[in-house]
Design a protein that fits this description.
Helix content: 40-55%
Distance between the termini: 119 Å
Shape: elongated
Strand content: 5-15%
Order of helices and strands: HHHHEHEHEHHEEHH
Largest sheet: 5 strands, mixed
Structural class: alpha/beta
Number of strands: 5
C-alpha cells in the first residue's frame, strides 16, 4: 500500500509538472493542431509568393507584347507586303518591307531582272509587270485566267503583245505568262486571244524565271531541284523601274478586288519607290 501511494504521488507530480510546463514553468509543447496550423500558414505564404511572381510575369509578357505591336506598327513588320483586301481598302506597304524587298542595283549597276531579256519588252513599256505562273492543264489556273480575262481582257491600260504593238506607248500593266505547259500545243492554245506576253515555250528563260522566283508546279520540283516558295497559279507583281517585288499575292488580289487590284498595286509601287529613293539618298 505505501508503495502504491508513493507511485501515485510521483505520477501526480509528473502530470502536474507537465501541465505547468515543467519545473521551469516553460511553454506548453506543440500539439498536432498547432503543427497543422503552422503548415497551413506556410502554404498560404508560399502560395501568395508564387501568385505574386505569376502576376509580375504576366504583366511583363503583356508589356513586351504591346511593345512588339507598337514596333511593328511604327517601323514595319516582316510579313508579306501585300495581302488581299476584302473590305475594299488597300493595304499600304510599309517602308521597312519596301526596303527589304526592293531589289536595287547589283554591284555591276544592273537591275536583277535585266538578265532576263524575255522580260525587256514588258519592263521597258509598262509601269507594272505581273508575272503569271500557270499551266493549261492545271485546274486551279483556269478560274484565275478567267478572272484576268474578265478584269483586264479589254483594258486600255494593259500592254499588248509584241505582235500587236504598232507603237511604243507606255502602259500601266503588262501580264507575262510563264507557263508550266507540257507541250507547245497547250502553250499556244492557252495564249490564244489573250493580251498576255508569253515567255517562249522553248526559251531557257522560262525555266530560269521559275528558279529565280522559286515558283513552279508540283510535277516540276524534281526537274528543277528547288525549294519551292510558291505553287501555281501565282501572280508576282513587279515594279518595272526598281525590279522590286510589290506582292506575291496577285492571284488573291485579282479574285477579291477585281479592277481595284490595279490601283492597289500602283499604291504599293509608290511606296516601294519612295523607300528606294530613301535608301539611295
Amino acid at each position: 500500500m505505501p508503495s502504491q501511494r508513493i507511485t501515485q504521488r510521483r505520477s501526480s507530480g509528473l502530470t502536474s509538472r507537465f501541465r505547468n510546463g515543467g519545473a521551469g514553468g516553460g511553454s506548453l509543447p506543440l500539439t498536432t493542431d498547432d503543427t497543422q496550423k503552422q503548415r497551413k500558414r506556410r502554404r498560404r505564404v508560399a502560395t501568395s509568393f508564387y501568385i505574386r511572381w505569376a502576376v509580375i510575369a504576366l504583366v511583363a509578357t503583356l508589356v513586351l507584347f504591346v511593345l512588339r505591336l507598337s514596333t511593328s506598327y511604327f517601323l514595319g513588320s516582316s510579313s508579306e507586303p501585300s495581302t488581299s483586301v476584302q473590305t475594299g481598302n488597300s493595304n499600304k506597304i510599309n517602308n521597312s518591307d519596301a526596303q527589304r524587298r526592293a531589289y536595287l542595283m547589283n554591284r555591276d549597276n544592273t537591275l536583277p531582272l535585266s538578265q532576263f531579256t524575255e522580260l525587256t519588252f514588258a519592263l521597258e513599256n509598262s509601269d507594272l509587270v505581273a508575272l503569271y505562273f500557270a499551266a493549261a492543264w492545271c485546274p486551279m489556273s483556269t478560274p484565275v485566267s478567267l478572272a484576268l480575262d474578265s478584269v483586264f481582257g479589254d483594258s486600255d491600260e494593259i500592254l499588248p503583245t509584241k505582235s500587236t504593238t504598232s507603237n511604243r506607248e507606255r502602259k500601266v500593266l503588262s501580264i507575262v505568262y510563264i507557263s508550266s505547259d507540257t507541250t507547245l500545243h497547250e502553250y499556244n492554245n492557252y495564249l490564244h486571244d489573250r493580251n498576255w506576253i508569253g515567255i517562249p515555250f522553248g526559251s531557257p528563260q522560262r525555266r530560269e524565271l521559275k528558279l529565280h522566283f522559286s515558283t513552279c508546279a508540283q510535277r516540276e520540283l524534281q526537274e528543277l531541284g528547288i525549294d519551292r516558295k510558291h505553287e501555281i497559279p501565282t501572280i508576282i507583281v513587279i515594279d518595272s523601274k526598281t525590279h522590286g517585288i510589290l506582292t506575291t499575292n496577285g492571284v488573291n488580289d485579282v479574285e477579291t478586288m477585281g479592277k481595284s487590284a490595279l490601283d492597289h498595286w500602283r499604291e504599293l509601287q509608290q511606296n516601294i519607290r519612295e523607300a528606294s529613293r530613301a535608301m539611295l539618298s
